[in-house]
Structure formats: structure tokens, C-alpha cells
Input
Amino acid sequence: MLKIISDSADESSPFIKSVERAKLLLPLEKMLEQLGDWELCVEDRLCPFHDDNSPSFSVFAQGEHQYWKCHAGCGAGDQINYLELKFSLNRGEALRLFLEMAEWSDKDGGFYE
Ligand SMILES: [Zn+2]
Output
């Protein structure tokens, strides 16, 4: 018989839970540092996705997570959205890359649902 875990996140798959954990392990600012984008994105607040002459890029915290936004309209989101845009990846590819970056690559054997 299956055990039912009675927390509020009981509808999340183990995959989504690893992603949530990885996001805490590798916050956006730390990921930007890994990518060599920290200075541009955080210090100069310049958007890496368009030719930015006036600082359009914000990194902000919401709850325990960090998000980014380009005020010129390139997009907004979390670490995964950033990787999608930066490397022209689909969601699955970006998730896999992110988990690898967060050193979850050996967890559970596979990342696609
Ligand atoms: Zn932009």
C-alpha cells in the first residue's frame, strides 16, 4: 500500500520537488555568477537578451526564490526561464541543464516526466 504524504505539496511529482530543491540550492544570482553573467545582470543591471543601453534588468526575491525581469520586454521568470532564453532551449532541456548546474545530475536517474 502506498503511503500518502500529507503536506500541501502532495500533488507535486518528485521531479518538480527536485527542481524546487535545486532552485534553493542554486539561487538565480549564484547561477548568474556561474554563467559569468553576474556583473552584467546584477551589478550593471543590463539585460543580456537585447542591446541594453539603460539598465533594464532586475533580479528580485519573492519568498524564498529569486526571479529576473527585463523591463524592456525580453521576458521574466526564474532560473529555468533564463537558461531557456540564453541558450535557446526548450523547457525540458533548460530543466536538465539547470539540475546539472545545481548538481542534482545524479539524482533519480532521469529528469523528464
Ligand atoms: Zn531585455
